[in-house]
Structures are given as structure tokens and as C-alpha cells.
Design a protein that fits this description.
By secondary structure, this protein is an alpha/beta fold. It has five helices and 15 strands. β3 and β4 form a beta hairpin. The chain starts with a strand and ends in a 21-residue tail after the last helix.
């Protein structure tokens, strides 16, 4: 395994046309592979619109098993191109039991592993608790031919505990498939605060753990199925190095494909000068397991 790794990001729009969405993802993967990507990361729930804007039992029809149709299609593509692909799917585990699941497909098309989203939001336009059971696979990196991948999903981005546990288990890079944006009623100043907070929190994970972070978000406006409001997804997919430095940052409106080279040896060098893992006071952190310290 070489020190340098080329990572592809596919930032796309999604509509109610599932086949068109998948075609966009496939085209983005092919473009990234053509630019030298060895690992390609897709955004959260890239096969369809962000259906969690409302609570609708009919949306459970969108869920699929793993292995299933999408893992079969993207696995075949991974094998054809000889790359590793990180997908994001609505997993049907059993009747009424579904997860928001990222699946990593190996170069030979096999499933290298999966991660079920652990932190599930329940906010206006993000009614994910209605659809997704919290993950039960823990924070375990997925071993692949391109390294150990710390795969997390969207709302997990706000939790330093998740990033830290992945890093402590040997993750070489943190990957965040994401679907986040603004509501139309948000004023410009609030939009700016939200976007900067989102970026800052993830750059902080890179800094605190001394490893790169890759965040891939969708773009475009998706109206609410109820006809009021909607979400303007803000894009801004990016890659940050182990000191939080931007290695790439995509735009806020356009579909884009980017390939970014990371140097895994740099994590070793940064951890030597910023030895945060060495200086952790693990003997004094017992209260972190409490909900709140009264």
C-alpha cells in the first residue's frame, strides 16, 4: 500500500427519478476513476431525493436489503474500474426495521463492510428518527485494499466522540457522506453561520485526530413533498488534511467531481508534533459516559 491515495468526491443533485440519480452517481464515479481515483465517496442517500422532509410510511418502499440491487450494481462497477466505492443506502433489515447505511465496496466488487448511522436527527425537515433505527455496528473502521476507512454519516459529523473512536481504532481517514442544507426561510447571516459551523466541526475532527477528513454533500433544491418549504442543499464538499488545512473545497451550487491526493505519511508527521493521542487523560474521562454532569 502506497503512502499516497487519490480520493474521488461526487457531489450531485437528486430528484424523484431513481434511475437518473443512479446514472449521475455512476457517471461521477467513472469520471473520478478516469482522473485516477482509487477510492470514490458518494453523498448520503444518493439514489433518491432526501425523503426525510416528511413522515410518510410509503417511503419505506424505497428501502432495500444489503446485499441487494444497489450493492450489486455499484459492486460490479467497483470491479470493472478496480476501485473502492463508498455508497450510502436506505437499508431494509426487516419489516419496520431500517437503517441509514454506508456500504464500502472493494475492488473485486465484494462488500468490504458497512456502517449504520449512529446519531439520528429529528428536526424540522429532517425527520430521520421516523425512518432510521440507530446503528448497532459501533465505530469500527472498514479494512480495504486502500486502507482502514473511518466511515460515518452526516449527523455523526457533529460528534467528536465518533471521530475519536474511529481514530483510536486505526482509521486512516474519516469519510462523511452527507445531506445537509438551508431552509428557504433562513436569512443570509444564519446560513453563513450554519455552513461555517458544519465545516469547522469537521476540520476540528481532522486536527484533533491527526488524520484527513472527506465530506461529500449534495447540491440543489429539493421541495417538500407537502408543498411548503424544502431544502437548498449547500454542497461545499471538501477534503481537509490532518492539520485541518483545505486540500479541496467544491462549490455550493454545481454538480462536481473532484479527485484529491492525500499523503498518509503526513498523519504520522503531524501526530509527532501534535501528540494529542499521547496526552489524553484516559484516567479522568469516566464522566464522558454520563448524559450530563449535574
Amino acid at each position: 500500500m502506497t503512502a499516497r491515495l487519490n480520493i474521488g468526491l461526487v457531489q450531485q443533485r437528486c430528484t424523484a427519478d431513481r434511475e437518473a440519480n443512479i446514472a449521475r452517481s455512476v457517471a461521477g464515479i467513472r469520471e473520478a476513476a478516469g482522473k485516477g481515483a482509487e477510492l470514490v465517496v458518494l453523498q448520503e442517500l444518493h439514489c433518491g431525493p432526501y425523503f426525510c422532509q416528511t413522515e410518510d410510511t410509503g417511503c419505506f418502499d424505497l428501502a432495500e436489503p444489503i446485499p441487494g440491487p444497489s450493492t450489486g450494481e455499484f459492486g460490479a462497477l467497483a470491479k470493472e474500474l478496480g476501485i473502492v466505492i463508498v455508497t450510502s443506502l436506505f437499508e431494509r433489515r426487516a419489516a419496520g426495521l431500517c437503517h441509514n447505511t454506508a456500504v464500502v465496496l472493494e475492488r473485486d466488487g465484494s462488500i468490504a463492510g458497512k456502517y449504520r448511522k449512529m446519531h439520528i436527527p429529528d428536526d424540522p425537515s429532517y425527520y430521520e428518527k421516523f425512518y432510521f433505527t440507530p446503528g448497532d455496528l459501533g465505530f469500527t473502521p472498514i479494512a480495504t485494499s486502500v486502507g482502514k476507512l473511518g466511515v460515518l454519516v452526516c449527523w455523526d459529523q457533529w460528534y467528536p466522540e465518533a471521530a475519536r473512536l474511529m481514530a483510536l481504532a486505526g482509521a486512516e481517514v474519516l469519510l462523511y457522506p452527507t445531506a445537509i442544507g438551508w431552509e428557504p426561510g433562513d436569512h443570509t447571516e444564519e446560513q453563513g453561520r450554519q455552513l461555517e459551523a458544519w465545516i469547522t466541526s469537521q476540520r476540528a475532527h481532522a486536527i484533533a485526530n491527526g488524520i484527513p477528513v472527506v465530506s461529500v454533500n449534495r447540491v440543489g433544491f429539493e421541495p417538500s413533498p407537502e408543498g411548503n418549504g424544502g431544502i437548498q442543499f449547500w454542497g461545499n464538499s471538501f477534503v481537509a488534511g490532518p492539520q485541518g488545512e483545505f486540500l479541496a473545497r467544491l462549490g455550493s451550487e454545481a454538480e462536481e467531481v473532484a479527485v484529491v491526493e492525500i499523503d498518509r505519511q503526513r498523519s504520522e508527521a503531524v501526530r509527532r508534533i501534535w501528540p494529542f493521542l499521547r496526552d489524553r487523560r484516559i484516567d479522568a474521562y469516566g464522566d464522558i459516559l454520563k448524559r450530563y454532569r449535574d
